[in-house]
Each structure stands twice: as C-alpha cells, then as structure tokens.
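ingest -> validate -> predict -> emit
validate: passed (alphabet ok, no gaps, 190 aa)
predict: started
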Amino acid sequence: MIYTKTGDKGTTSLANGERVSKCDAHIEAYGTADELNSFFGWLRALLEQLPQDGMSVHAVQIATVQNKLFNLGAFLSFAPGEWLTETDVRDVEQWIDAIQAELPPQHAFILPAGSEAIAAAHICRTVTRRLERQMVRLAENNLQNEEENATQKEDLMRAIRWVNRLSDYCFVLARKCTIIQKKSPIEWKK
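emit:
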C-alpha cells in the first residue's frame, strides 16, 4: 500500500527509526537531494536529445550522480553504511577537468539561459547549492554536539565536498551545452 498514514500528523521516520518533524533539517536536506535527483533526470533526458558530440558520456555521468544522490539521501537519513567516498569526490573533479579542458576561457558572468538543456543544467547547479547550504547548516549544528561521532562528521564533510563539486560540474556542463548547441553564452550586463 502506497499510503501508510504514519505521516499524517507531520512526522516521518529516519532510517535509524527516529521519528522527526517533516521539516527537520535532515528531512529538508534529503528532500532537496530527492528534488535535485528529479532535476538531474530532466537534464539527462534533455542531454540525450542533443547531438551526440560527446554528450552521451554526460548522460552516463548523470546516471551515476542520480544513484549517488540516493546514497546521499540514505546517509542524511542515518542509514548505516558508507554512502559517499573520496573516490566519488575525485570522480566528479575528473569530470569537471575533462569538460573544462574543452571550454574556451570565460571572461564574464553568464546568465542561466540559451536553451532548455543549458537552463536545466543551471537549475541543477542552483538546487545543488541549496542542498549544500542545508548540509553546511547540518554540519554546523553537528559540530557543536560534543557527542557526535567523529566518523559521522568526517562523512558529512566529505558529502559536502561532493555536493560542492557537483555544482561546479553543472556549471561547466551548462557551458559545454552552449558550445554543443552552437549557442553564444548570454553574458551578464551590468
């Protein structure tokens, strides 16, 4: 049955069994990760419609990102296990470096516009930044808690690094979409 009625009073369960308000900071963060996953699904669908001049690799990368976002949600819900690793952080850095090597130098701020794929990549970037802010807030709250497990703190900081890199990935991917679609970047005019 899809409806359980257990959340009808505004609470939900974390993976560790604890019941919390549906507006708890952990719920906000993993809810944003879920929202971001949906936006990445949209971006992936748009990339699959573009000329395949090197774009199919990014659809595969985004599939990886979507799985890692589910991992992040599990981590933020206190599910036991190792959900994001340093290798995950390095993978996104390598993706960024590979795209960046194909891009011309950037001389101005760029508006999030030009095509649906470009705009979708920027939506992913900005929702990723919101998720990062929420996770930093969690980290600040957890760092004040003396009883917090050192491993949990380390895991949270690694997850924040991964999310930070993910927003950079979205930015360079938007720039690559601009080139692939033979669009001119729309620069910010003061």
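The longest strand covers residues 11-13.
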